[in-house]
Write a structure and sequence with these properties.
Helix content: 25-40%
Oligomer: single chain
Strand content: 15-25%
CATH superfamily of the largest domain: Mur-like, catalytic domain
CATH class of the largest domain: Alpha Beta
Largest sheet: 10 strands, mixed
Strand order of the largest sheet: 8-7-9-6-12-13-14-15-16-17
Number of domains: 3
CATH architecture of the largest domain: 3-Layer(aba) Sandwich
CATH topology of the largest domain: UDP-N-acetylmuramoyl-L-alanine:D-glutamate ligase
Length: about 475
Amino acid sequence: MHSAEPRHIHLLGICGTAMASLAGLLQLKGHRVTGSDQAAYPPMSDLLRSLAIPVAEPFGERNLQPRPDLVVIGNALSRGNPELEAVLDSGIPFTSMAQLVQEEFLSGRESLVVAGTHGKTTTTSMLAWIFEVAARTRPEWAPSFLIGGVAENFGTSFHLRDTKSFLIEGDEYDTAFFDKGPKFMHYFPDALILTHVEFDHADIYRDLESVKIAFARLVNLLPRRGRIVAFDAAPNVRDCVANALCPVEFYGFGPDAHWRVVDMRHDGGGTQWSVLRAGVPWATLRLPMAGEHNALNATAAAALAAGQGIPVAAIEEALATFESVKRRLEIRAVVNGITVIDDFAHHPTAIRETLRALRTAYPAARLWAVLEPRSNTLRRNIFERELIESLALADRVVLAGVFKGENIPEGERLHPEQIVLALANAGHDAALYAHADDIVEAITPELLEGDVVAILSNGGFDGIYEKLPARIAALCEQ
């Protein structure tokens, strides 16, 4: 399927983060790129517009004119979609995003993959920035990358260079309607970071064991000359790497970690720590971000980069100037002394680490957690206890209704009212409102100068990120 000749490649579901990034990479390689989606939505619709890549909406057979050479089918599409059905009926060659990435960009390069239930977008962004800083003195380090979010240092989620290293976020979610295996099984890593392994994506994985099997299969792809950097404090991670045929280097706080984190200090929104490499002092790392989880992500990125030969000075400089990722503890507005933060929350563990990080960064603030249960895991009742424990870290908790809850069977669905009741019974201030507009109207009069509002969702949350600051500003003007 791979061809050096430019082709017309059409992407179904182009506004997904990975698909839009793939569109940009294909355009950089000289292909003519078009796409379609049900409804174009930011931030990826803005990216595609800036690249002048046409996006047709909604899905339909007419979007396949003129006939493309190849169609890429996003993993959100299923049989019955009118444009997908037209592709199948007309015999147009089709593939998946992950397969095309492997054929067009990874083949012949060094594949560096970052995988795990949590932290992979941030860690991949850190790794890319380390390589970029190293390239200032050695241009051959300049990375190509594909990240599941916009890396602020680059202002983009993708880059393509004529160099050997390609850095990619290894997603455990399924690949396409015709390929139900994880995307990362197409990436054939030469080196791998494995951050965490927990039960997630309850719509496609039956239980924790099936998640662990998927990651163990990823580990099984690495050649003997490869290398794995794995989190040391997670038994699930250790289980997944137990049968690796290549070296495994653990990172974390444990006394036996090959990359051991010691002397961690928090200073407002920043973090500093030292790293011992095989018991020997190796580096002092500084990160202008709060949160123990971010320091661990940075240590993993530093460890992988060091193993690829990047000098410690470049690693230290890169992490000290790292600018985070959009939708990861992103300050969206500060209005009348009230800070509104956007965080991509998809799992109770991620919520817990986000709120812990905000406690460190804003120790004197009253912390609000405003949650939309939107991910396929949070929409279900499998992690009710863990969710309650995570949200209890906030001073005030506000829940919205379950996103498209009607699509989840009643017996499996999360019931936010039960979460609110449990929090209230434990002495926490919690409330439930059906929609974003109701939340904005209810909480705005209660907000005080110095408050921090963490909006937790892995989707658009009906525009609350814009609506809340606007309502705060309007109330201040009255």
